[in-house]
Amino acid sequence: MRLYVDGQIVIDRWAAEPGPVSGSLDLMPGEHDVVVEYFNASGPAFISVGWSESNDYPDWRGEYFASPELTGAPALIRNDPAVNFNWGRSGPSPGVLAADNFAARWTRSLEFVDGVYRWTVIPDDGARLLVDGQIVLDAWQGPAGQEVTAETTLAAGRHSVAVELRNSEGAGGIALSWNVVIAEETPTPEIPSPPTTEPSTATPDQPTATPEATSLPTATPTDTPTVVPGSTATATPTDDPNTTATPTATVDPNTTVTPTPTGATGTPTPTPTSGSATPTPTPTPRITPEGNGRNIDVSPFPALPGDEILLTSGNWTPGIRVSVSIVESGLPYSQAVAIEGTTKTTPTNPANPVTIQFIFPDDSRWVIGTDVWIYIHNADWTEWGQGELELNEDQ
Prior knowledge:
Layout: E1 2-5, E2 8-12, E3 34-37, E4 60-65, E5 76-80, E6 84-88, E7 102-112, E8 115-124, E9 126-131, E10 134-139, E11 148-154, E12 157-167, E13 172-183, E14 256-260, E15 269-273, E16 294-295, E17 297-299, E18 308-313, E19 321-328, E20 337-338, E21 344-345, E22 354-359, E23 371-377, E24 384-390
Parallel strand pairs: 16-24
Antiparallel strand pairs: 1-2, 1-3, 4-5, 4-7, 6-13, 7-12, 8-11, 8-13, 9-10, 9-12, 14-15, 17-18, 18-22, 19-20, 19-21, 19-23, 23-24
């Protein structure tokens, strides 16, 4: 049989060799073409094909072939932390691959910001670089041991990166690096400044406050604040507590004065109207994200730190990447702690539920008797589900 995904061969065993065979490939969320080819030489005929998500290669998935043209099934598959090797004359895996006439392919899905990226590869002997299945850099025929660069524009989000190496003879090795050349930034709109007016030397006409001559109160020593818009009021104490206070209107040139009649005398009393000195309250963080969340079944319930937890939740958008975060009940979701190793792609059929297993953290943050909110969510929390777990012994 042979199996292709998006035209790339994943399994190649075109021989009469009964038994299971497997292969792996990094895929981005979305639709993909899968082609299976099969033949029967003699005897009973039977074939079964299936697939599942694997987290066996958290870094670069390295496939090593006993052919310089990437043909046949890989002789070795392993996780490589980086594409940066200098094997010299020994080859990548003595005893498994020969030091000459081999090839390798590394694949990985990575998160990028908007921008123009410069890719740099130093291969020995030849190399290719593909981003989202498109060739960005082609030095398959050399020059060996020299730096080769190329640039490409990427939109924000996850992209699939593949690096291929060909070694014919002599020393083998490769080094890959990249950096953003131009980062696309959203322009910040300019806020026009208010027009600046020259201060006038003339004294503005302002209503004069005329206090009533009778029944003036005897002042108690108090602080009389003078409020200027946008400033903090400064207390000015009255010097003599036995002095009769004469109210004085403090006029701010930037204050709009509204005359208010005093009834009996008809004399307007100026009422300064200034900018609000009331502080703007700080908004309370949202407990849950925007939108409607899904329900999550949590098993077992209750549980203890260190227990394995199974989450089940349905009706998700197909092919999106989700992961698990936890937070103490009642705290904002923005304080939730991400659980490593729980990222998963939702099923292509929304009728199938998402299931995620993880070990509940066993550290000092999570004490017995605490109620915990468990979230399944995508990277920007536009899709999410919530369940609750009590940290306690079985009841």
